[in-house]
Amino acid sequence: MTNPQRPACLSQPHQEELANGLLRVSCRYQPERLLDDSFLLAGIPLPVTLRTAVAKRKAEYLAGRWCAREGLQGLGATGIPGVNEDRSPRWPKGRIGSITHSHGIAEVLVADAERWLTVGLDTEQWVVPERAARLEKELFTDYERQQLNRMTPLQRANRLTLIFSAKESLFKALYPLTGKRFYFHDAERRKPDRLTLLRTLNADWPKGTEIPFRWRERQHGVLSWIALPR
């Protein structure tokens, strides 16, 4: 399709330049408004693996690719990310990116690969205190849990949400570079805006490496991202 049109299930995308060659694009999606021709209208292929998926999953994918195309165009590129065997996005040559979606909002970070080594993006809804208390051991290292001692239950839950999101962004940023899967206890927040690797992923990413991250707190959750320049 030469002139893609926005399906009714998607809102107008919002684009923000975070730095030179680094764009964030977001839009809202409504699974209940997804139609049989929404992918065709948008000019975005529906992967075979999603043909029998529920409307929510299809809408998430459609919104993510819609934002990704907008971001690529904003950087002077064309195309839509494909899908790798591990289900991660396959970006056009010369561009890198990261996609996240949660509770009706899709967001994408797209970057010029000549300027940026890697990026990772994640958004999470605030975890309620009761659930946070159950997740602390799973998501936090002993050091991170010690930092919660004088916090209220709500403060602890918000801290958990932030660190959970930051570690998700870290995985999205480093997995494409290392090909190594790692988990929540393999990185630790020792400084307010840094995550420290607690295991060696490869020669370029040894134990002790500090990776900066940024975040925005919102009414309903938090957005975190990692963007490492070359």
Describe the protein's architecture and organization:
- The chain is of the alpha+beta class.
- Helix content is 29%, strand content 30%.
- It has 2 domains: 14-114, Ribosomal Protein L22, Chain A, CATH 3.90.470.20; 122-229, Ribosomal Protein L22, Chain A.
- The strands form 4 sheets. A 4-stranded antiparallel beta sheet has the order 1-2-6-5, with helices on one face. Strands 7-12-11 form a 3-stranded antiparallel beta sheet.
- A hairpin with a 3-residue loop joins strand 11 and strand 12.
- Helix 3 (129-139) packs across helix 5 (153-178).
- The model has no long low-confidence stretch (mean pLDDT 96).
- CoA binds at residues 57, 65, 100-101, 122, 168, 172.
Average pLDDT number: 96
Give the topology string: H per helix, E per strand: EEHHEEEEEHHHEEEEE
Low-confidence stretches: none
Q: Major beta sheet, specifics?
A: 4 strands, antiparallel
Percent range for helical residues?
Answer: 25-40%
Count of separate structural domains: 2
Dominant shape = globular
CATH homologous group name of the largest domain: 4'-phosphopantetheinyl transferase domain
Proportion of β residues? 25-35%
Q: What's the total count of β strands?
A: 12
